[in-house]
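Re: [ENG-882] Designed sequences occasionally contain unexpected residues at chain ends

Forwarding the minimal case from QA. Structure tokens:
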């Protein structure tokens, strides 16, 4: 059985409601970068992570280097889910052929990664992604996994763990996310996991909007380490083109994420409920 982070060691009580509002997918686009930066500076977002293989990596890497006070992880990437907007590995695709399609781009779906990706090539590519981030001056606080592909199989999860140990960084693990990719029961005694992970859903976005759902989430948070995963971006022409035929986690969704978590009313609700912000930088101190 995996264990939860030792939050009392960090000075918190067992009754504290701790929350990390974490922005995924920085580097994906100019829109994603701009919204993420503004959410960090003006909103309630406490952590973000960067997709190294994406075209806008250099822009967000420069921000992270110049603003080391912000919690920043590496969003380890093995898939490219977009219809027309494509990117591939950091390494030449000839070195990691099991990770790419016939055009040299990452596979679109997780199931393709599960079926085709060779663990040794996965580790080789992900080390290259981390090293590129380090060489760009980023000082990462953790590792996490785009679309949670590294939770798909025992072999991929082993690669994830190995990278965390090698770079002395916490890895984002959750039994809920493992269940979501069909791999619940693969946690080990040495794994540190997040108590509760919260993500918006497409049905709510279409009906009442994500703001109502997120308000309910915040009102219902319980003691322990909670993470809300968001994907802030602006619903502009660039992001609409990235998200063609992909409304789930699409351009409209990402604008809702940005709007809610930069709204002063959200900050007021966090204060009212005495919800305490926490970052991966703090959790790093629990790694021996």
């Amino acid at each position: 059985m995996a264990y939860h982070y030792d939050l009392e060691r960090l000075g918190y009580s067992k009754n504290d409601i701790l929350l990390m509002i974490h922005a995924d997918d920085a580097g994906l686009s100019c829109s994603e970068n701009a919204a993420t930066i503004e959410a960090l500076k003006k909103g309630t977002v406490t952590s973000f992570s960067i997709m190294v293989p994406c075209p806008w990596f250099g822009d967000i890497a420069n921000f992270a280097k110049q603003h080391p006070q912000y919690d920043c992880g590496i969003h380890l990437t093995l898939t490219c889910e977009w219809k027309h907007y494509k990117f591939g590995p950091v390494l030449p695709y000839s070195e990691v052929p099991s990770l790419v399609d016939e055009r040299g781009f990452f596979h679109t779906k997780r199931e393709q990664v599960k079926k085709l990706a060779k663990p040794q090539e996965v580790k080789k590519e992900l080390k290259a992604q981390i090293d590129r981030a380090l060489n760009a001056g980023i000082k990462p606080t953790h590792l996490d996994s785009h679309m949670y592909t590294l939770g798909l199989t025992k072999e991929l999860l082993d690669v994830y763990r190995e990278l965390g140990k090698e770079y002395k960084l916490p890895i984002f693990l959750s039994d809920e996310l493992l269940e979501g990719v069909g791999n619940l029961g693969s946690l080990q005694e040495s794994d540190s996991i997040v108590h509760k992970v919260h993500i918006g859903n497409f049905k709510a976005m279409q009906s009442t909007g994500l703001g109502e759902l997120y308000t309910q989430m915040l009102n219902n948070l319980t003691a322990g380490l909670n993470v809300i995963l968001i994907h802030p971006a602006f619903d502009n022409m660039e992001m609409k083109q990235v998200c063609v035929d992909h409304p789930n986690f699409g351009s409209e969704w990402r604008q809702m994420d940005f709007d809610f978590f930069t709204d002063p009313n959200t900050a007021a609700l966090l204060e009212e409920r005495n919800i305490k912000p926490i970052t991966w930088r703090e959790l790093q101190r629990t790694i021996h």
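QA comment: On inspection the terminal residues look reasonable. Residues 3-78+134-284 form a domain with the TIM Barrel fold (CATH 3.20.20.370). Proposing we downgrade this to a documentation issue.
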